Amino acid sequence: MARKEGYLISKGESFSYSIYFLGQNISFAILTMYLIIFFTDIGIPAATVGVITLIVKIWDAVNDPIFGGIVDKLHLKKGKFMPWIRISVVFLPVATILMFAIPGSLSLAAKVVLACVAYIIWDTAYTICDLPIFGLITTLTNNEEERTKVMSYARIMALAAFIVASLVIPLVRRLISGWLPSVIVLAVFVALFMLPIAIVGKERITPQVVQEDFGLKDIFRYLGKNKYLLLFYISIIVGTLVNTGSALGAMVARYNLGDEALLSLLTICAIVPSLLFGMILPFLAKRIDKFVIFFAASLLSALFGTILYFIGYENQVLFLIAFFIRSIPSGITLFMCFMFTPDCVEYGLYRTGINASGIAFSIQTFTAKLTTAIATSVGAFALAAIGFIENEGAVQAAGFNDKLWMIFTIIPALGSLLAVPFLMKYKLRDKYVQIMAKANSGEITREEADELLGGRFR
Question: Which of 23, 107, 164, 218 has the least CB density, counted as fewest CB within 10 Å?
Fold first, then answer.
């Protein structure tokens, strides 16, 4: 079947791009859902887990912009992004295994040191895989509609990864005792899913760049003028720094619902709305600007999260229905949250003449890891504050479950509400970005673009 007019990506390339996210996000899901419970199971106190994740963020704050600058400055023969993607096919699975290879029999000091080292290695590996794969979409095609379609499929795969991880980890842990065998099984699939795009990916779009060789001062000038990149990711950071729900899902399944394996059911309820939405987004985006959808979902996520708290967890059927409904708007924001960086890249190039996509996507990567790690830290510190007792099989004090429920529901709802004022200042819309993309690739002149944009983004 011929490609749609104006589309540049082949079906095989589109599929390979999408399933990369399945592999990559299996690794991400393992850490998001199981890091706290694994570390506390091997005897690391919850408060110490919070400190470990904060220590890693010191390195993370440095490595993301450094790597983004390296990607932008280096001119590799095999492409701007593809060489890094090929490295990540091996690096990320190995780093994931290292995270869960810490023996519980070691002293507390040894476990803490190994946890910090392994986490730093994983964090570096994730930077090397995440920034290039998102940046690659800007060199695969300059068609805004095609980008939205391909990234919708990619986000479906990314969210499906959470279901895969939540199903496989409990199953393999029951069949083969221990965390490490479960993670090794998943790490093999991580590599297999990430491999195809490393073979077939083709960078074909080279934007017309006014300034290509730029230094540190130019990078800060770029970020200062790319206000929509900063606004959007400030809103994401504010909204998800306290997303303790994702970090404590396994704890809620174990203590509130009485069975850790029920995390799979919670994950399915949380992800299915996102997957269904992802299937209709390419069609919906033709009629409604994607930011309008995202903004409305953010408001509803705060409202439904608060309602869920008052419904409670005692009646599991009622809880699951309410949890599924709450997951519809939160799933939409989760699905769409990284679909705006390519728009900000086009805006930044249009405004400054600097092709700093590496820097822009490093902000995205940094935000994803920062919010996950801080949410994990907040969740771990909150567990310590309500008297959580570490080690697998430990009996918790009376009243612990109700306190855990509040952390799981109310705090994330508050975060969604706090993000709204920043989102209200974000003015980029799909129709404007498409005009900028055409100007950036030389299809139309800058003067023609300014006229079509009505002088809005000069």
Answer: 107
Assign residue 264 the CATH number of its domain: 1.20.1250.20
| CA 85 – CA 199 distance, rounded (Å) | 10
**Is the whole model's pTM more than 0.85, yes or no?**
no
In a domain, 95, yes or no: yes
Q: What pLDDT, on the 0 to 100 scale, is given for residue 310? A: 92
Q: How many domains does the chain have?
A: 1
pLDDT tens-digit readout, 324-349: 888 888 878 877 887 898 899 889 88
Is residue 1 included in any domain, yes or no? no
Distance CA 104, CA 99 (A): 13
Average pLDDT of the residues in 134-150: 83
Enumerate residues 6+ apart whose C-beta is below 8 A from 399. none
Assign 3-class secondary structure to 106-162: CCHHHHHHHHHHHHHHHHHHHHHHHHHHHHHHHHHCCCHHHHHHHHHHHHHHHHHHH
DSSP state of 96: H
The predicted pLDDT at position 1 comes to: 42
Q: Which of 70-74, 354-358, 390-394, 407-411 has the highest mean pLDDT?
A: 407-411
pLDDT at 111 over 70: yes
The answer to the question of residue 4 being in a domain is: no
Q: Report the C-alpha gap between 257 and 255 in whole angstroms.
A: 6
Cα 80–chain centre separation? 22
Q: Which domain holds residue 117?
A: 11-453
Residue 3 domain-assigned (yes or no): no
99 confidence band (pLDDT: 50, 70, 90) = very high
> Are residues 170 and 262 in contact, defined by beta-carbon separation less than 8 angstroms?
no
Give, in order, the Cα–Cα distances in Å from 294 to each of 16, 68, 72, 301, 376.
26, 26, 29, 10, 24
- Measured between alpha carbons, how far is 369 from 178 in angstroms, rounded to an integer? 26
Structure tokens at 24: 């990559």
Burial 124-162 (b: 16+ CB within 10 A, else e): bbbbbbbbbbbbbbbbbbbbbbbbbbbbbbbbbbbbbbb
Q: What's the confidence (pLDDT) of residue 61?
A: 65
- Residue 152's contacts (CB-CB under 8 Å, 6 or more residues apart) are 278, 279, 281, 282, 335, 339
